[in-house]
Amino acid sequence: MNKALSTSVIQSQLTMGQLYLFDELNSTNEYLLTNCNTLSQGSVCITKKQTAGRGRRGRNWIAPKGNLNYSLIWSYPINSNLILPPLSLVVALIVIESLQQQGIQDLTIKWPNDIYHKGKKVAGVLIELKTMPPHIYLVMGIGINLAPISKENTIDQPVSTLFGYDINPNQLVLCLTKKLQQMLINYPQTGFKPYFSLWKNYDLFLQKEVSIITDTQIYKGISQGINEQGELILQQQNSFLYFSVGEVSLRKG
Question: Pfam families annotated for this entry (predicted)?
Fold first, then answer.
């Protein structure tokens, strides 16, 4: 990030939650999960350098100083009627909207929640849960590449960075936080439905040949986008397969 994050600037403009800013942390998600029952609703953790971040399906992610390593915590009553799998798709949309407000265009989403800029990954989302009756705690982790690419990470997909773009990190964090908090207030009532049509506008692999990789098999076909449950639809000749978030990896071709 070309400009410095300021706790006072951000906190003064938040109407809920507390901001925790660190120079170095193993994982922002882990910090919020560990302290979940003592944090106020909608609190945010950011670290300038993350040394033991986690990606989807247990992958490790080392984030060098300068990236945005961000997590937000939210709790619901444990008996809430929540449909959680599509939530990461909604968070990906919020990341795109927040980056667009910083002037970044040419953004797409690789299902379920990898954000691409000009065909290469620049951001990702990881949602983790913790149940402590009477609450269920959700932590939404977001990583955005704002620094030069680290050689410490071995990535099986093309990766890029927004380094060099004129991004105001304080405004980006504020935008992310306010949009996430408002969405999470409404989500038990709205679910994924209000976001379904918008998500399709950013679908990186819509109508393209893809491979779906599970623990035991590879499925090839044409991506027909998603349904209103956030499931990926794969067409194989005249039949259709449906895949849920968290089960699989998606690749082109």
Answer: BPL_C, BPL_LplA_LipB
Domains and CATH numbers, the chain: 7-200 (3.30.930.10), 209-252 (2.30.30.100)
| Active-site entry in 56, 59, 130, 178 | 56
Catalytically annotated residue among 49, 59, 178, 251: 251
For 102-168, give the DSSP string: TT--SEEEETTTEEEETTEEEEEEEEEEEEETTEEEEEEEEEE--SPPPTT---SS-B---TTS---
Is-above-0.85 flag for pTM? yes
Give the pLDDT confidence of 36-65 residue by residue, as tens digits.
999 999 999 999 998 876 665 555 556 678
pLDDT tens profile 188-197:
999 999 999 9
% the chain with pLDDT above 90: 81
Residues constituting the chain: 253
Residue-level pLDDT at 56: 53
Rounded Cα–Cα distance for residues 110 and 204 (Å): 5
Token digits for 241? 């397969």
CB under 8 Å to 35, separation ≥6 — which residues? none
* SS3 state of residue 84: coil
Q: What distance in Å separates the CA atoms of residue 109 and residue 93, rounded to the nearest whole number?
A: 8
Q: Are 179 and 94 in contact (CB under 8 A)?
A: yes
Does 121 qualify as catalytic in the annotation? yes
Among 48, 110, 121, 179, the one annotated catalytic: 121
